[in-house]
Write a structure and sequence with these properties.
GO terms for molecular function: oxidoreductase activity. Residues 8-194 form the Ketoreductase domain. This is SDR family oxidoreductase. By secondary structure, the chain is α/β, with parallel strands linked by helices. It has one domain: Rossmann fold, CATH 3.40.50. The chain is 41% helix and 15% strand. Helix 1 (18-29) runs parallel beside helix 2 (41-54), helix 3 runs parallel beside helix 4 and helix 4 packs parallel to helix 5 (161-181). The longest helix has 32 residues, at 106-137. It is globular and about 50 Å long. Bound molecules: NADP nicotinamide-adenine-dinucleotide phosphate.
Length: 250
Amino acid sequence: MTDSTFHKTAIITGASRGIGLAIAEKLAGQGVGLTISSRTAADLEALAPHLRQLGAPSVTTIAADMADAESLPAIVERHREAHADLSALIVNAGVGSSGDIADYALRRLDKTLAINFRAPFQLIQLALPLLRAAADRHRDSGAKIVVLSSITGVYAEPGLAAYGASKAALISLVEALNIEESSAGVSAVAIAPGYVDTDMAAWVHDRIPPHAMIPADDVALIVQTLLSLSRRTTLGPIVMARAGSGGHCA
Ligand SMILES: NC(=O)c1ccc[n+]([C@@H]2O[C@H](COP(=O)([O-])OP(=O)(O)OC[C@H]3O[C@@H](n4cnc5c(N)ncnc54)[C@H](OP(=O)(O)O)[C@@H]3O)[C@@H](O)[C@H]2O)c1
């Protein structure tokens, strides 16, 4: 069987808005079967017909909170029941959090790390059996994991230490994962953008207007391309900087 015999399928976390929604729309347009997740079931159910109309052959929805480790297995399980195959895991859900190290509450640190690092680690762990099986079937492309890191995980910024560290940890996780899994066809990429024009970046609109931010669709285009690569290539972190920013800050 060739790769074209298979319909590709993907799980996308944080798909109800922002970058995750742009990725869901892009992949739907490519005919990818989707499982979309965020915290609110009604948002996801409202989106499903839109994604089907764009071309997704099937859309499964599952509400889960990345801060609740017990709610994560159901995401992969629902996808397995609905689609059987899993060719791509898009680990996108995350939270922004700012504050200087000197007085950053440790409770906030724990929550940021739980959502931005522990949940991605756990989801990847849960999805690996399905991804390995898909890599055996998709002989050309293998199976892919795409993780939304941040430029702040590459270039540190004052006031973003906890967030940046959680995103730097994802880059290290992706590197280790590629060493462990990519020769068998499961490969991972971390995308590290500067400010993207979504709700998450609205807090800096007084300094950086929306039109000076990276469009969410540009991130989605990168994801679409990554999913088309052969299994024989792995990539380092993809840093996406805002035009005019100098490239070393969010
Ligand atoms: N925007 C930027 O400037 C920027 C730059 C670099 C990297 N990133 C990263 O890109 C990813 C997406 O960011 P975005 O800008 O699209 O954010 P966003 O507009 O705030 O959207 C976040 C998405 O994640 C979901 N989400 C939030 N908290 C969650 C939780 N605890 N459990 C499950 N789902 C949750 C949200 O849905 P619900 O609220 O309904 O659950 C929503 O679908 C994040 O990992 C972010 O760190 C963003």
